[in-house]
Amino acid sequence: MESAAEELMPRLLPVQDCDLSEDFDPTVPPRTPQEYLKRVQIEAAKCPDVVVAQIDPKKLKKKQTANISLSGCQPAPEGYSPTLKWQQQQVAHFSAIRQSVNKHRNHWKAQHLDSNVAIPRVEDEEGWKRFCLGEKSYLDTAVEESRDEDQGIDYVQIGFPPLLSIVSRMNQATVTSVLEYLTNWLAEKEFTPELGRWLYALLACLEKPLLPEAHSLIRQLARRCSEVRVIEENKNDEKVSALNLLICLVGRYFDQHDLADEAS
């Protein structure tokens, strides 16, 4: 068996049997190169030729769900797709915004936040959903917006907007994580203006070249936007323009050309 294995997997560095003293103990850390090689030979000889995985049949009986996503976006319904000129204008405007954010990041990062702005920890998905979209959307309750002359708008209820003083404090790990949280939200809830503003702001803060996880996320976001657009009945609804914009940025600014809408 050993000779057959040698024929299939020849040694890159053939090693002769080591001549060691009689008091050699393979259980103690090696002290010389020869003792190290001998220990490797002994451990390799103990490895079984065939290893069989132990599978619990009970776990296979449980209901399993496989998530399969299409590589491209859902085609825009007739009359919903934006023109190529419009898409080019949005990309140019978005590029200018990104340059401005990067240029003034340190300035906005140094600005003091109001006492009621408590930025969640990066791993707190539910906290970020509440922070960005507000308790009203998170709890799906009809809470009236609280406006008081002394206290102002109750952002805890309606969600904090993506102010530059907030997003400038977010590193790339936080930007990617929050983008994932809000994309997950879009997969389960309806598209709202508050959600659209945050998604746009996060894309504006996303650095290029994209990390693999960010690349996967923005593709997932574009696909979800296309799915929401398909079921929208009114092509003139502001929601359609917002969805078109997000799909456009992913496809044309971040070079995911297979997801971009065809010119109408």
Keywords:
264 residues; mainly alpha; two-stranded antiparallel ribbon; 12 helices
Protein model, in words:
- This protein is mainly α and 264 residues long.
- Helices cover 52% and strands 2% of the residues.
- The protein contains twelve helices and two strands; from the N terminus they run ααααααββαααααα.
- Strands 1-2 form a two-stranded antiparallel ribbon.
- Helix 11 runs antiparallel to helix 12 (238-253).
Brief synopsis:
With 264 residues, the chain is mainly α. It is built from 12 helices and 2 strands; from the N terminus they run ααααααββαααααα.
Write the layout of secondary structure elements.
Elements: H1 2-8, H2 33-46, H3 57-60, H4 84-103, H5 105-109, H6 125-139, E1 147-148, E2 152-153, H7 155-158, H8 164-167, H9 172-188, H10 193-205, H11 212-230, H12 238-253
Antiparallel strand pairs: 1-2
Helix pairs in contact: 4-12, 6-9, 9-10, 9-11, 10-12, 11-12
Main pleated sheet? 2 strands, antiparallel
Which regions contain 5 or more consecutive residues with pLDDT less than 50? 65-69, 142-150
Mean pLDDT: 83
Terminal Cα span: 67 Å
Strand line-up of the largest beta sheet: 1-2
Strand content: under 5%
Structural class: mainly alpha
Backbone CA Rg: 28 Å
Task: Report the helical percentage.
Answer: 40-55%
Helix run count: 12
Outline, from the CA principal axes? elongated
H and E string? HHHHHHEEHHHHHH
Counted beta strands: 2
